[in-house]
Amino acid sequence: MKLCALGIETSCDETAVAVVEADDHGCRLIGEALATRPEEHALLGGIVPELTVRQHLELLPKITAQARGKCGRSSFHVVGATAGPGLAPALLVGLAFGKALAWAEKVPFHAINHLEGHLFSPFVSCGKWPEYPHLALIVSGGHTLLVDAVSPSERRIVGTTRDDAAGEAFDKLARMVGLGYPGGPEIENEAKGGEVGIYSLPRPMKGAPGCDFSFSGLKNAARLLLEKNPDIARSGSARSNFCAEVQAAISESLVDRCRNALEQTDRRLLTVSGGVSANQGITRALEELARRSGAKLLTAGAGWNTDNASMIAAVTARRALDGVASDWDTDADPRWSVAG
Ligand code: KG4
Ligand code: ZN
User: Fold this and answer.
1) What is the mean pLDDT of the chain?
2) Nearest-CA neighbor of 79 among 52, 60, 51?
3) Fewer Cβ atoms within 10 A, N terminus or C terminus of the chain?
4) Using a 6 Å cutoff on CB, does residue 247 contact ligand 1?
5) Which residues are within 8 A (CB) of 116 and not within 5 positions of it... i.e. 6 or more apart?
6) Is 230 exposed, middle or buried (0-12, 13-18, 19+ CB in 10 A)?
7) Residue range 41-56: average pLDDT?
8) What pairs with residue 297 in β-bridges?
9) Statement: the pTM of the whole predicted model exceeds 0.85
């Protein structure tokens, strides 16, 4: 049986709605709309929770109408909305909107874990359902996690960050050298003309046992370097060399942690999702690691790696196909774990 699922994502500053068509063989995106206003947050120095609430309230009805219009379908079989983890006030808006929409359309409702969406995205971006077991790296502005996905219902966290997330490190380091928000794409772009090794920054946790991450040491080392060399933030080529070094430091750290996790879990399939996985230097380095480890790397394609509603619609569809009961009572949970 083919079913149509509408997903809503409001865990941070993106307001996103998507519709997928799915059956037991796979899942296909048929309509999507997304709005984000990073410049408004950038003016205030970062994501402002109150501002996200106003944006979601204003944009959700329009974005939903757009997504429905694009897929050319007036009805759907099920609705899902992100219930966590994320910013509590932002989650509440999307969750209440999703429940109200499902109620009005007389269809079931599912509260979805945002990180489960990221776990799905590398697979559903190429139309497939997740394969198990696999090892998943989630690298975004809010999370840096290594998850051993044993089966659809058994997930173990094998590595997490002790301080900042990888995307957060990109954002903070970009800001230190006068680049805009979000910092990851800005650093990647600037790094293209730069050379690794002109400046020396640490590779956080490289060689340490286990699979945890830490980026605060890198941030402090970068701050000291910039204090000693104020020209870096001003000159084009010095800034490019700095950005190339930052990207190499984060990339080598991620690769080292993934290597340990692949050895520890003995998995043969590594997936990567989350905004940082849009970075081509990082995905190339992970590709190389997978090749050397006899594993396969699956990345979420463009439009699926950063926050999106397609992944939420996909998890919703899977749940409906599996006959999971509606869950109207689930509240927003800003710290909802992906382990289960
Ligand atoms: O997954 P995402 O859209 O939202 C969160 O759940 O956080 O990730 C956003 C993060 C930001 O920190 C941004 O700087 C980072 O992903 N990012 C990148 C790139 N594109 C986005 N980091 C490195 N290189 C990129 N090309
Ligand atoms: Zn995310």
Assistant:
1) 95
2) 60
3) N
4) no
5) 315, 338
6) exposed
7) 81
8) 270
9) yes
Spatial CB neighbours of 224, under 8 Å, sequence gap ≥ 6: none
**277 in contact with ligand 1, CB cutoff 6 A:** no
Q: Is 181 in the pocket of ligand 1 (CB under 6 A)?
A: no
Q: Distance between alpha carbon 30 and the CA centroid of its chain, in Å?
A: 21
27: three-class secondary structure by DSSP: strand
The amino acid that residue 319 corresponds to is R
Burial class of residue 292, CB neighbours in 10 A (0-12, 13-18, 19+): exposed
Q: Which domains does the chain have, with CATH numbers?
A: 3-125+303-321 (3.30.420.40), 134-299 (3.30.420.40)
Looking at all shown ligands, the one closest to residue 277's CA atom is 1
DSSP assignment of 62-130, as one string?
HHHHHHHHHHT-S--SEEEEEEESS-HHHHHHHHHHHHHHHHHHT--EEEEEHHHHHHHHHHHTTT-PP
Q: Which amino acid is at 225?
A: L
